[in-house]
Structure formats: C-alpha cells, structure tokens
Design brief:
It contains eleven helices and six strands. The chain has helices at about 1-5, 30-35, 40-45, 55, 70-75, 120, 125-130, 145-150, 170, 210-215, 240; strands at about 20-25, 60-65, 100-105, 115, 190, 205-210. The two termini are about 30 Å apart.
Length: about 280
C-alpha cells in the first residue's frame, strides 16, 4: 500500500533498508550514511502494506536532536514528492527555488544568531504560503520565542507539521545545540477532523495522515490552493469530495483511491482506546 503513496520501485534482492544516520542542521546525510548502495535502492522498499508510523520513521533521516528531517529526506531522495496533483510536474508547476538564505545577528530582534534558509522552505512552499499571511513584505516583525510557541510566524508550521522549535534549536541557532537524540522522531500533523453537526449514527470522524501526503507531494500542491495553512479554515464534506473538490481533487480513483463506498475505513478510523 505504501508503494502507492511513496511511488516506490520494486525491492531489489539483497538490499536491506537501514535507518539513516543522524545529521546536524548544516549537513545532509550521504548515500553511504543512509545505506550501502543508492538512496533509492536502500530506502524505497515496500513496507508490507502498512501505513503505521513506526514502520516508516526508521527510514527517514533525523537531525542531531532526533527530529525527522524532511528537507534532508527530500534532498537525498528518500522521498520524491511532486508539485502537481497528477504526479507529473510541468514546467509551469515547479516551485521557484529562492536561495536567499541569511543570518540574523544578535541585536534588537534576537538575542542569538538565527539562521533562516529560504532555499529549504521554497523546496516545499510557495512564497505566498508565508508572505504576506505570516510575514509582510519589507516590514520587519518582532520575532520572539513566546510568539513562536503561541503558533505565530514560524510557529504556524514548526510544531504542528514541521520540527518543533523546542527541540530544533540548532536548526535555526547554529551555536545552540540540543542533546543528541532528545527529541522523539514523530511524524507530525496527523489530524482527526472536527465534525460540524451530524448525529451519532455517522461514521467516526476522519483522520488525515499529513506525513503520507507530504512524502508524495510538496506542501504547495495543496496549500494554499485547496486548503488554507491554518487548522479549522477549510470545509471538508463528502458532497465537495464527490464533486471533485477538496480532497476529491486527488481521491478520484485515478490519482489516489476513490473516496467512495468501500473505502470509508481509509479515512474514518475509530479513535484508539487507551488501555485500562
């Protein structure tokens, strides 16, 4: 099943997947660090038809602290997301790769040196994903850790779907370092959608596994054209999906499984009961 989501090639005989080595912020794991042979041969192997996170986490590179490093996964070929929902990137659909990375020295706006890589963000996002919704053009904002932990600015993504700022210190502050392996390698963003109206006879609320889609598509494929990058801002209904809107843009039985009768349990998953 994951072979469909990840566009995986057939497993080659004798190739064994290994957990990628942990990496620092300013380094990207090499193919040798990932496994013997090419990254695609080592990492793109069928997972026995499971969508369980604990089967996928060991195959993704992690940073020094232990957080899953999706940008390293992208650059080393561990994941190969596309821009177009059809799975075929056209020349007009490709993202603008903007390589203006910069350091903010300690001063009025920050007490420590801060590194911001435009290049890493534009491999996943469009400029409009952050500007002007989070950051106005040519108008400085007052960044603080308190604001970020409140979900503002960088905190809109870092925590909900990208590495948490609390455990990703050296990813932004090159002179700060978390103890190695302190962060759990969580696949962030899995969401149980909120139900509006309805009755108790309806199926369980839908679960959206963000990481599955992130492995196949860059963020800009869905954001902001289909969904605003803020929880609770998009309406998702079976009527919209059946009309080819919302999730139905892809889940039409061709690009991805059809969101129709017979596939209900792919999204409507009962919540796990805690052990007594």
């Amino acid at each position: 099943m994951l072979a469909v989501f990840f566009d995986l090639p057939v497993e080659r005989e004798g190739v064994v997947a290994k957990a990628p080595a942990r990496t620092r912020r300013d380094s990207v794991p090499s193919a040798d660090a990932l496994a013997s042979g090419t990254p695609s041969a080592a990492v793109f192997v069928p997972f026995g038809g499971t969508l369980k996170e604990d089967s996928v986490v060991p195959l993704l590179p992690r940073d020094h602290a232990g957080n899953v490093d999706w940008t390293a996964a992208l650059r080393t070929g561990v994941v190969r997301p596309t821009v177009s929902p059809s799975g075929v990137d056209s020349a007009t659909a490709r993202l603008l790769r903007f390589g203006f990375d910069f350091f903010l020295p300690p001063g009025q706006d920050t007490s420590v040196t801060t590194w911001f890589p435009h290049s890493g963000h534009t491999e996943w996002l469009e400029c409009s994903s952050c500007h002007v919704r989070l950051f106005p053009y040519r108008r400085p904002v007052k960044l603080s850790m308190d604001a970020l932990t409140d979900g503002k600015y960088c905190g809109a993504c870092h925590g909900p779907v990208a590495f948490p700022i609390e455990t990703g210190c050296e990813r932004c502050h090159p002179k700060e370092e978390m103890p190695a392996g302190e962060a759990p390698p969580a696949l962030l963003g899995t969401t149980r959608l909120r139900r509006v109206g309805g009755d108790t006879l309806e199926p369980p609320r839908s679960v959206f596994p963000h990481w599955v889609h992130r492995a196949r598509f860059v963020c800009a494929t869905c954001h902001n054209q289909l969904f605003e990058m803020k929880a609770g801002q998009a309406e998702v209904s079976m009527d919209l999906i059946s009309q080819g809107k919302s999730c139905g843009v892809c889940h039409d039985g061709k690009r991805a499984f059809s969101a129709d009768f017979g596939a209900c349990d792919r999204c409507h998953v009962p919540p796990k009961r805690s052990a007594k």
